[in-house]
UniProtKB/TrEMBL annotation:
This is glucose-1-phosphate thymidylyltransferase. The lineage of its organism: Archaea, Candidatus Iainarchaeota, Candidatus Iainarchaeia, Candidatus Iainarchaeales, Candidatus Iainarchaeaceae. Its cofactor is Mg(2+). Belongs to the glucose-1-phosphate thymidylyltransferase family. PANTHER family: GLUCOSE-1-PHOSPHATE THYMIDYLYLTRANSFERASE, GLUCOSE-1-PHOSPHATE THYMIDYLYLTRANSFERASE 1. SUPFAM superfamilies: Nucleotide-diphospho-sugar transferases. Pfam families: NTP_transferase. It is an enzyme of class 2 (transferase). It comes from Candidatus Iainarchaeum sp. InterPro entries: G1P_thy_trans_s, NTP_transferase_dom, Nucleotide-diphossugar_trans. It comes from the Archaea.
Length: 151
């Protein structure tokens, strides 16, 4: 079955149901779909460059990003992704890199995307964790987020 993967350091305030439904509608033409978000510091992320409705390139933490569209860490895949992983060779870091899977799908013309309009951040560093905490607190104060544990 198709599945969604969300990296554990993502803080996402959007309902991704439409993201999944659109993937299902376009399943004949794409094998993977990623969620992008405009950011101020794209060099901290994997970055996608798009032209209209097509991704033209993907770079992992580029020094000079071609765009400000970060790959959020929300992915949807068909089971074919496991075949792709079996063909991968480890990176210089000795790991199988998800970016390499995305680039493979990009070359096949089988990678789709959506651009997130709502708040998103990662919490992969102490600074980013702080930013995520501030974001969540601001949303709670505005009444846009309920915290069942608040007093």
């Amino acid at each position: 079955e198709d599945f969604i993967t969300v990296l554990g350091d993502n803080v996402l305030l959007s309902n991704i149901k439409a993201f999944a439904q659109d993937f299902e509608k376009n399943r004949d033409s794409i094998k993977a779909k990623i969620l992008l978000s405009k950011v101020k510091n794209p060099e901290r992320y994997g970055v996608a460059t798009v032209d209209g409705k097509k991704i033209t390139s993907i770079e992992e933490k580029p020094k000079n990003p071609k765009s400000n569209l970060a790959i959020t860490g929300v992915y949807m895949f068909t089971p074919d992704v496991f075949n792709e992983f079996s063909r991968l060779k480890p990176s210089p870091r000795g790991e199988l890199e998800l970016t390499d899977i995305l680039i493979s799908y990009l070359k096949q013309g089988a990678l789709g995307f959506d651009i997130l309009q709502e708040a998103w951040t990662d919490a992969g560093s102490f600074d980013a964790l702080y930013e995520a905490t501030v974001l969540m607190h601001e949303l709670e104060l505005k009444g846009l987020l309920k915290n069942e544990n608040s007093r």
